[in-house]
Design brief:
Keywords: Amino-acid biosynthesis, Cytoplasm, Histidine biosynthesis, Lyase. This protein is of the alpha+beta class. Helix content is 35%, strand content 30%. It has one domain: Imidazole glycerol phosphate dehydratase, domain 1 (Ribosomal Protein S5, domain 2, 2-Layer Sandwich).
Amino acid sequence: MSRKTKETDIQLELNLDGTGIADVNTGIGFFDHMLISFAKHAEFDLKVHADGDLYVDEHHLIEDTAIVLGKVLADALGDMTGIARFGEARIPMDEALAEVALDIGGRSYLVLNAEFSAPQVGQFSTQLVKHFFEALASNAKITIHASVYGDNDHHKIEALFKAFAYAMKRAVKVEGKEVKSTKGLL
C-alpha cells in the first residue's frame, strides 16, 4: 500500500505469514529500530520506505506510517475469519515492563498508560508513541490497551513495540474457520 501527501510518501508491504524479515527506512533511526523489532517479534515480514518533511519534524512521517500500517493490517485480516482475535503480552526490557492486550474486533480504541521523562529518544519524539498507536489502532480497527513502566525511555518504548508485536502475533493466529463473535461477523 502507498500513501502520498504533500508531507510524506509512504510505501509499505506486510506479510502476516512471514518470518520476521524487515526492510525499513524512514530516515528516523529509532523509529526504524522499533518497526524492525515489531516485525521480528510478530514474525511478520515488513517493508517500509518512507520519505517525509523531516525538516519540519518527525510527526507527519510517524503518523502517516502508522496510518498505512493500520490500513495494511486491516486489509490483510479481511473479515477476520478464523483468527484468535485477542492477544496479549508482557515484555520486560531490563528495568522496564510493558503490557499489551488487544482485540482485533473491528472497533478502534487506545488506552495507553505511559510516561516518558525525555522529550526525545534519538530523533523520535516520545510524544509520538501515543500518536503512533492511536493512528494504527484507528486504521486497523483494533482496540489496544497498553502500559509500561521503567526508568529508561528507550527500554520502555522498545518494550511497548515488542509487547504489541507478541500480542498481534497471538491475535492473528488462525485457530478455526469461524469469526470469533457471537454476532457471526466483526
